[in-house]
Design a protein that fits this description.
Number of strands: 5
Helix content: 40-55%
Order of helices and strands: HEHEHHHHEHEHHE
Largest sheet: 5 strands, mixed
Distance between the termini: 25 Å
Radius of gyration: 17 Å
Oligomer: single chain
Strand order of the largest sheet: 1-2-3-4-5
Structural class: alpha/beta
Shape: globular
Strand content: 5-15%
Length: about 220
């Protein structure tokens, strides 16, 4: 996405448990936000920055805004929820069962295809998983039981919260709760499901561009 945003300098860190940060265990979303904060404070021109987060990055970005508001000028977040997930009693055991499979190339390709991603695109999965099964299980455990409604009420930076129209109900409901519960927040719905930023890549890029420019979000985003 960054390549399609000329003039934008972006920091794209590997979060704990992933890529070059795989040796750092994923503890919880708050601790991951603290790691990102340390990275930002180490920059020579450290200053409040706009933050974009998708899925795991959505949870991390939310906690970054809550815990380190001096580093976040505003945040655009999509694909997360702020309350325990309905049905977590069966989704948890399912994640334990499939997490080893989801690190394998065949199943990763199938999972991406289920999001609407196939063929060679910049979002297509590489041959190797960026994280191990333990990290995937930890993400599921944290996300399914995540409770951040109190933190959201205390966030003092502007939030733009989005979700795909076909995402799970709790994620869609999060957009409404945040947008209607804070004068500093707004929200919207994009076409598609959890993979909408990748499936509708051009719309996602246009959305981020408009948000950075303080312009109205594209017509493809339905406001709350």
């Amino acid at each position: 996405m960054v390549a399609d945003l000329p003039g934008v300098r972006a920091l794209c860190p590997d979060l704990p448990g992933f890529g070059e940060s795989a040796a750092i265990p994923l503890e919880d979303f708050a601790r991951s936000a603290d790691h990102v904060a340390a990275l930002l404070r180490a920059q020579p021109d450290a200053a409040p920055l706009p933050v974009v987060g998708y899925s795991l990055g959505g949870y991390t970005g939310l906690m970054l805004a809550a815990r380190h508001p001096d580093l976040v000028s505003r945040a655009l977040l999509t694909g997360f929820q702020i309350m325990p997930v309905t049905g977590r009693w069966w989704l948890g055991p399912l994640s334990v069962a499939i997490s080893p499979l989801m690190t394998r190339p065949f199943f990763r390709r199938r999972a991406f295809a289920a999001l609407g991603l196939s063929g060679e695109t910049s979002w297509s999965p590489g041959p190797w998983s960026p994280c191990d099964a333990r990290t995937l299980r930890r993400i599921a455990d944290l996300a399914l039981s995540f409770e951040a409604r109190d933190e959201v009420e205390r966030i003092a930076v502007p939030l733009t919260v989005l979700a795909g129209r076909k995402e799970m109900r709790d994620i869609r409901e999060t957009v409404k709760l945040i947008a209607e519960g804070s004068k500093l927040a707004n929200g919207g719905y994009a076409p598609g499901g959890h993979g909408w930023p990748a499936v509708s890549h051009d719309l996602f890029v246009a959305t981020v561009r408009a948000w950075l420019d303080d312009a109205s979000l594209p017509a493809g985003i339905e406001p709350v």
